[in-house]
Amino acid sequence: MDLxxxxxxxxxxxxxxxxTSSYQADRETVLHLLNDALATEWVCVxxxxxxxxxxxxxxxxxxxxEFKQHxxxxxxxxxxxxxxxxxxxxxPELAPDGLAKRSHADYAxxxxxxxxxxxxxxxxxxxxxxxxxxxxxxADRDPTTRRMMEEILAQEEEHAEELSSLLV
Length: 168
Hints:
mainly alpha; 168 residues
């Protein structure tokens, strides 16, 4: 490791923030993937919120609490993703008309509690597969984004398990 060369590059490219010459991923591809994940998270927040407000029935209160908690966690995922987009020199794409187009999951509000849970479980399974593919792509090219997505993936898997258990 040439420490002096690293110091010199850091001084020459100080305006580039976190982006250094060691970054190996295609930044535009990563920004595109992250903006798609951001849209997916926001569509999930909105779907969980809708389910929280319209859920009715004998088991609704317990399930509503789960919907509310998941909405909060999905919003936290969205915040982390948006922050990473900015770190990589991009702009989080949050225009409402583009969210549904870029989201991997659909916005589907079911007519009853069981359908709502199934729709949320489907969305979680979609996120799990999408994020797994993203993590594979990132590999060692962008370890910071990969680790963030691995942490988000772990929580999506928890959500899927919790929803699955509600269907039993």
